[in-house]
Design goal:
Elements: H1 4-16, H2 19-26, H3 30-44, E1 49-52, E2 55-58, H4 60-86, E3 92-98, H5 100-105, H6 107-117, E4 121-127, H7 130-138, E5 144-150, E6 161-176, E7 197-199, H8 205-216, E8 223-226, H9 230-238, E9 244-247, H10 248-251, E10 258-276, H11 282-295
Parallel strand pairs: 3-4, 3-5, 7-8
Antiparallel strand pairs: 1-2, 5-10, 6-9, 6-10
Amino acid sequence: MFSLDRLRALAAVATHGSVARAAQALHMTPSGVSQQLGKLEREAGHTLLEPHGRSVRLTHAGRVLSRHAEQVLGQLAAAESDLGDLDDQVLGPLRIGGVASAVRTLLPHALADLTTRHPRLLPTVTDGEVVDLMPRLLDGALDVLLIESWANRPLVIPEGVTLRTLVDEEAKVALSTRHPCHHHEAVDLAELPDTAWATCPPGTEPHEALVQALRARGVEPDVRYFVAEHTAQYALVEQNLAAALVPAMAGAVAPPGVRMIPTTPALRRDISVAWLTRNQSPPVRACVAALEAHAA
């Protein structure tokens, strides 16, 4: 029978991509993780790791066993969570990360109810982009994420992460009332070949979704303004310096000089809650339930 500690070491290497990062996540030394993996290889009768540059990667046998390890650890975490729920132990730290629009519109109401029902819960909130927040979830630095995924560029979810969609919403183009297309009832992105754009920095979901949407309509993106806050994007749009692609959650605060116009074809994004499958603790479960209730 395989040791749980050795399976946990293998799952950590599969999740984090190296022995060093797995050791950091498990609060062990790299040599300690390597020893656990060596013992696991002898128990399994297969080589589980192979050299890859200056690091290592899982062999086929390692990938097969890591999937089983993830399932075993997830079931164990669920059992521990169920036992904790018997005593209603929704208390202690709850570390939440999320994209700014969801943090601003969806999270406060859910947190107000959650902390009223569970006064011993201690939530903290960090906003940011998915590209920065997901590694922190995988490393155990965050417990719950509110993330976005655009329909024309679906987010790739790492193994071991559970995802539940909360909101499906439309995104619109923000144009200045001085833009030639501002009077349109709907706008095809192909109609905007000479328009500059404001969006989030490269590598973020909104930036990549915008670039792909424009290229799909035969327009090479002219992105000149890299600003994360929609209020800053609106300021640039209002002065007719740029257009912006804005989801519904942020569209309500558009200033008078900005018009929100649907796109043809329509562009949509999801807001989802994500957590590590093996971390189904009572606080995480209570947070997910509260978010689902307010999203509905």
